[in-house]
Amino acid sequence: MRKLIIANWKMHYGPVKAGAWIRAFRRERLPKEIDIGVAVPHTSLAAARSSLGRAGVPLLGAQNSFWEKEGPYTGETSPTMLAEFGVEFCLVGHSERRTHLGETDEMVAKKAVALQKAGIQPVICVGESEEAHKNGEAEKVIKAQMKAALAQGVKATGSAPLVVAYEPIWAIGTRKPCSPQNAREMHEVIREVIAKKFSKKVAQDVRILYGGSIDERTVAEYLSTTGIDGVLIGGASLDPRVFGLLCRSAAPA
Ligand code: PGA
After folding, report:
1. Where is the active site (predicted)?
2. What is the pLDDT of residues 228-253, one digit of tens each?
3. What is the widest separation between alpha-carbon atoms in the chain?
C-alpha cells in the first residue's frame, strides 16, 4: 500500500500565501513512492489549484465540507463546489471542528458519504481526549466514533476510497506525540471496526493515518510501524521546505 502524507494548514494562508507555498513546495525534491496531499482553507483553493495546474503533486484537499449539494445553508460549501476546484480529498471531523464548531459523529458520517458521491476522498478524523486517554477509555471512544462514522453508508473502497486519521486530541500541537506503539494499537482497533462493518480484506486496504506532533525527525519511525499507512501533519507543514524535508525523510532508504 502506498503511504500517504497530508499537510493540514488549518486556518493559515489566504490565496497569496497559498500560491507561494505551492510553488515553493513544488521546487522540493519529492519521493515518488509516497502520495502527498495538502488540505487548504476554502478561500485558498482557487489559488492553490492555479499554482498546481490541473493535476500532480501535491494532491489538493479541503478541510471541511457540508453534506447537501446546494440550498439554504448560509456559509457552507458543498462537495460539488469543492469538486469544481478539482479537490481530491477532504478532511472530515477534525477534532478542532468537533470541539469549536460542534461537529457530531452523525454530521461527520453524512459529510463523508456526500463527499464520496462527488468523487472526493473523505479523510475521517477520530481521536480521544486527554481525559479519556488518562482514564484508559481511548479504545472505547475510538470504537464509538468509528462505528458512528461508518453508520450512514460511507464506502470503504471504490473511486474515492475512505481514509481514516487517528489523531488523539492530547497529541495535536502539543509536541507530545502518541508513541508509534500506542498509535499502532489504536490503528488496530480502527481496522477491527472497519473489518466488522465490511470485511477483513477491505479493512487491510483502508489507509489509516496517524496525526499529532509529527515532524521531519519523527516521521520515518511512524511510517515504518506496521499498520500506520500515513501521517497528517499540522505545524510541520506550514513551511514548504520543512514539509519537503519531512516527505523526503519519510521515504524508505
Ligand atoms: P500537529 O497537528 O501536527 O500540529 O500536531 C496535526 C493535526 O491537527 O492534523
Report:
1. 94 (electrophile), 167 (proton acceptor)
2. 999 999 999 999 999 999 999 998 66
3. 52
C-alpha cell at 81: 463546489
Instruction: Please give the model's pTM, rounded to 2 decimal places.
Output: 0.98
Which domains, ranges and CATH numbers included, belong to the chain? 4-250 (3.20.20.70)
CA dihedral (114, 195, 7, 230) in degrees, to 10, reads -160
Asked if 218 and 210 touch (Cβ cutoff 8 Å), the reply is no
Counts of helices then strands in the chain (DSSP H, E): 11, 8
Tell me the three cell numbers of residue 83: 469538486
For ligand 1, whether the C-beta of 61 sits within 6 Å is no
Please state, in angstroms and rounded to a whole number, the distance separating the CA atoms of residues 114 and 85: 16
In the annotation, is 106 catalytic?
A: no
Which residue in 69, 60, 58, 59 sits closest to 41, CA to CA?
60
Residue 44 is classified by DSSP as: G
Pocket test for ligand 1, best of 11, 99, 175, 213 (most atoms within 8 A of CB): 213
Confidence (pLDDT) at 55: 76
The count of other CB atoms within 10 Å of the CB of residue 54 is: 6
Contact (Cβ atoms closer than 8 angstroms) between residue 107 and residue 73: no
> 229 near 16, Cβ under 8 Å?
no
Place of cell 507543514: 237
Residue nearest to atom 3 of ligand 1 (CA): 234
Is residue 187 among the annotated active site residues?
Answer: no
Where is 196: in which H helix or E strand? helix 180-197
**In whole angstroms, what separates CA 166 from the centre of its chain?**
9
Rg (CA), the chain: 17
